[in-house]
Design goal:
With about 240 residues, this protein is an all-alpha fold. The chain has a domain of about 80 residues: Serine Threonine Protein Phosphatase 5, Tetratricopeptide repeat (Alpha Horseshoe), CATH 1.25.40.10. The chain is built from twelve helices and no strands. It is elongated, with a radius of gyration of 25 Å. It starts with a helix and ends in a 5-residue tail after the last helix.
Length: about 240
């Protein structure tokens, strides 16, 4: 081999190495949001993904999460970012893989188990969901506020799906005890009372949810209260009258 040939091979190798190195670091995110600067850090990309999700720009949301993972592969928030996008897309297999990684990286974070439990519930895996929710309640601090309250509420939803309304109501009570100003906890408890046939208590909880919720929340709350009021009216009209 001549010296010239060897030099050409070395130069080609350096060129290819540079190209491949750049490709490994290449930013997959090519989206923009008017009036906002380009994201730079992993945290920026996670926030940008949330912005795209709100705008229902799923491909951009996913690309932003992928870049967050490239920048901070050991940050559980980056995998939660992508797992949430996949879950929103109902791509449960990929979402579960990301939530598994979140829990591997943050095994003592109660919220990680709650999010994975929601994913299990969406797929009908009740036992797996309950195991995660029990774990979340076990490791959450007793003064965990919204964190612990959310775990109780989601476990209440799991019980309600199994039509175990007594356990569901007990968990909703625990959630409300810890976060009494959160409208959705009253809404979910109201739904459980409704399904159990206790329409008066159902209406009381829907009233409280409407009082605490914002305009967007009330779009969900008002129809449920109307249904409960109709059921109560029917029940009263059918009740035997004593003379």
């Amino acid at each position: 081999m001549t010296r010239a040939s060897a030099s050409m091979i070395i130069a080609l190798g350096l060129l290819l190495g540079g190209v491949l190195g750049c490709s490994r670091l290449m930013n997959p995110y090519r989206c923009t949001i008017a009036g906002k600067p380009a994201p730079r850090t992993a945290h920026d990309y996670i926030q940008r993904s949330a912005d795209h999700l709100e705008a229902k720009e799923m491909n951009c949301a996913l690309a932003a999460c992928n870049q967050a993972i490239r920048l901070a592969g050991s940050d559980p928030a980056a995998y939660h970012c992508r797992g949430w996008v996949y879950q929103t897309q109902k791509n449960y297999e990929k979402a579960l893989t990301d939530y598994d990684e979140v829990i591997r990286l943050a095994p003592n974070d109660p919220d990680s188990y709650v999010y994975r439990a929601r994913l299990y519930l969406a797929q009908g895996y009740f036992s797996l969901a309950m195991a995660d929710l029990n774990k979340a309640i076990e490791i959450a601090p007793s003064n965990g506020g919204i964190m612990l309250a959310r775990a109780y509420s989601v476990r209440g939803e799991a019980y309600a799906e199994q039509r175990d309304f007594d356990h569901a109501l007990a968990d909703y009570d625990e959630a409300i005890k810890r976060k009494p100003d959160f409208s959705w906890f009253y809404f979910h408890r109201g739904k459980a009372y409704y399904e159990k046939g206790d329409y008066r208590l159902s209406i009381q909880d829907f009233d409280e949810a409407i009082k605490l919720g914002d305009d967007e929340d009330r779009k969900y709350f008002y129809p449920e209260r109307t249904k409960a009021q109709a059921k109560l009216k029917d029940a009263l009209s059918e009740a035997p009258r004593h003379r």
